[in-house]
Amino acid sequence: MRMGYGLVGPRRERHTVLTDELDALALPVGDDGVVVGVDSEGRPAVLGVNRPTPYEVTLIGGLWTAQVLALRAAATGARVAVETGRGQVWSALAQAAGGGQQCVTLHEVGRVPPQGASAGSPVFVIRDCGMRPPRGRVVAGPWQSVLTLLPYLSPTAPRLLQQSSLVGVQRVSPDEAEQIGRLMSLPRSAVESLPTLGDGVTLWCNQRDRQFVMTQGTEAETGLLGAARRID
């Protein structure tokens, strides 16, 4: 485990990973990857969301990080479908993404139509449905990954964390950190770090691996979304 303090961002934008760097990454890497940030040594951390098997991700964190992931997934060629009850906070992103092409679509909660995901047209579904997201009509499947955003730990979180292939945790309260630590079998040092994480820092973990990652917005992302923040 690498601690996420004093992280130094990349000196230039990087959206690819060199072959000899792959073995150093703790996050699952697919054929196509989204650079979610850098680790404590400044190396890129890549999340493979475009994959032939179902992939569920839960992020206990802020809207800003979810929106950065949406933009970066769209940049890899994925179609992004956002299920949300607050379309107004996603509308500017949907209009700006894709250079005029509709690669990010917004849908009301429970109204996401079948996306027709395929190897040539992968889909990334982001569920921004509040503290108690209902069970989704569109679920993870081949070439269709699903990320559920929770602003804080909620009664539905244990079920979501147990079924997720990957969990992201940003700054939470000490009580929430203790609960997440038990659910994810985190070491004591990670549990104690969670309440002190800076804006833009996420612990990405599953039952086997864990890695602190700093996400820093590019100039274009910061211009659209503002600076990294945990609280919306």
How does this model look, in words?
By secondary structure, the chain is α/β, with parallel strands linked by helices. The protein has helices at residues 63-75, 91-96, 157-163, 174-184, 188-193, 219-225, and strands at residues 32-38, 44-50, 55-60, 79-84, 104-107, 123-128, 144-150, 166-169, 201-205, 210-214. The strands form 2 sheets. The chain has an 8-stranded mixed β-sheet, sandwiched between helices. Strands 1-2 form a two-stranded antiparallel sheet. α2 links the parallel β4 (79-84) and β5. The longest helix is centred in the N-terminal third of the chain and has 13 residues, at 63-75. Mean pLDDT is 86; it is low at 1-26 and 28-32.
